[in-house]
Amino acid sequence: MRVLGLISGTSVDGIDCALVEIGEGAEGIKIDCQKGQTFPYEDDLRSEIMAVADGSPRSVGALADLDDRIALAFSGVVAKMRAEQPIDLIASHGQTVFHRLPSQTLGYSVQLGRGAVIAQQTGIPTVSNFRWADIKSGGQGAPLVPMLDWVAFTADHARVVQNIGGISNLTFLPANAKAEEVLGFDNAPGNVLLDRAAQFLLDLPFDQGGKTAATGTIDPHLCQTWLNHPFFQMSPPKSTGRELFNHHFLLQCWQEAKGRGLDIPDFLATLTELTARGIIESYDRFLPSFPSEIIVCGGGCHNLYLIDRLSQLASPVPVTTTDRYGIPCDYKEAVAFALLGYLRMKERPGNLPSVTGAKRPVLLGELDLP
User: Fold this and answer.
1) pTM of the full predicted structure?
2) Closest to 20 measured CA to CA, from 5, 7, 39
């Protein structure tokens, strides 16, 4: 089955696509990522998504219009991808604009870009709305990527697959892991704060390679203050997004940094350290053992300063990327949703209750036919 996985993450930098051929043999599911590409949003659409994700109020009608605008943007991407190769199935995660953890009631998660419109526009069966079935079963609806990690990266030694997208999240795979032994949770902010800081302070879309941060000096005291935030202390399962690590959070951090005399490079270095230490300390705090290998994916792979800090904090444990194992680090989440779409079509559960906190394995995603 040739599945096109689609997702736009919390960084809202564009629509990530992965064209994946999925089949099965004696050794289980085989995943071949044939092409990955990112298509940026138009500026006005990206600005509107960012405003909604940051909590700016909108009418129901405005949200409905935005839902369809995103679906049409996703449909346009499908048209470009199918011009090169045929597609059997679309698996679209859409654009997350809100995510709330379960407390006294079930959790709540909103992904815009409805699958029915994509199916109508493209004429291709579309699976979308992946999170709701897990939420209705008492789970957090996130993270869902660990299913791919379990299928693709289980080995004879303990591994962490560490995604650094807008939000950082991990999958812990014990040696020869069984499904019920897999752990996964959001563990730190990722590019969402670093990119917003570069836009706010440098007038750049991002700090390329972490070059500016690398010239700064880390303030350990301030970093520890930020790490005292309740999110970092909360036990898994846990998930978060821009509803917590947003522009308001960043402005508070910047005011605290200025109060301690930090300049922009120092602030970016300390903000990077928040992600690096948040990640590594989550291993010590919440995993049954420190992994023997850390495999990184997501846009954070390109932040060389961040990867260097991770490597230093994790030493002597090696830090590598999913590229080494045939899954492009920039498109791994899109590959994951392609797999989840495939599993939905095969009527197999796509969640891992040990990760999301759901009561049971369930089918993920709603299927819309053209």
Assistant:
1) 0.90
2) 5
